[in-house]
Amino acid sequence: MGDEKVKNDALQIIGMFQLLPRLVVFDLDYTLWPFYCDCVSKREMPSLFPQAKGILYALKEKGIDMAIASRSPTSDIAKTFIDKLNIKPMFVAQEIFASRTNKTDHFQRIHTSTGIPFNSMLFFDDEDRNIQSVSKMGVTSILVDNGVNLGALRQGLTDFSQNASRSEKNKQSWQKYSQNSNSSEKKDED
Questions:
Q1: CATH number of the domain bearing residue 158
Q2: Whole-number Å distance between alpha carbons of 25 and 83
Q3: Where in the sequence is the domain holding 66, given as residue range(s)?
Q4: DSSP code for 88
Q5: C-alpha 172: how far from its chain's center?
Q6: What is the pTM of this model?
Q7: 151 in a domain, yes or no?
Q8: Nearest to 173 by CA among 161, 162, 165
Q9: Which InterPro entries match (predicted)?
Q10: Domain count, the chain
Q11: Catalytic one among 3, 9, 27, 190?
Q12: Model confidence over 55-67: pLDDT tens digits?
């Protein structure tokens, strides 16, 4: 499936949702591309997973910001590959640095630089520990097995939409509770 076909399919999927993330964050190794960049030479020409580029173009066309969160110990190679693939301008933030733990520091930096709340983010990664820790921050997080693809995009947008709806309902319930609480306080004062 060519990039243009994938892009059109991704646009169709995105169009099915009213609630969209403000920022989609991608891991690199085994999420956007099918290798660990610390196991290849900077001189090689990298490639993305087959549907990744079309998905990136679709998100860009829809005006959804994108970022990278990678724990790569070879950030120089990762950045070189991003340049070689001509995808650098697509990302509003690139947090690529080694970390022995998970990606919470990456997301704190992304949040600080973009101002986008965690609950307005969607994240794709191939490591469950990253998914677990980042989810606890309020980010909708999707585990990918074979790189980002249309199925993962659909799942991510579905989960994001459900999380956003749940959050909005909780907010409305809280506002209703607060209003009732305030009106009963006023009655007590009378």
A1: 3.40.50.1000
A2: 18
A3: 1-168
A4: G
A5: 26
A6: 0.87
A7: yes
A8: 165
A9: HAD-like_sf, HAD_sf, HAD_SF_ppase_IIIC, MDP-1_euk, MDP_1_eu_arc
A10: 1
A11: 27
A12: 999 999 999 999 9
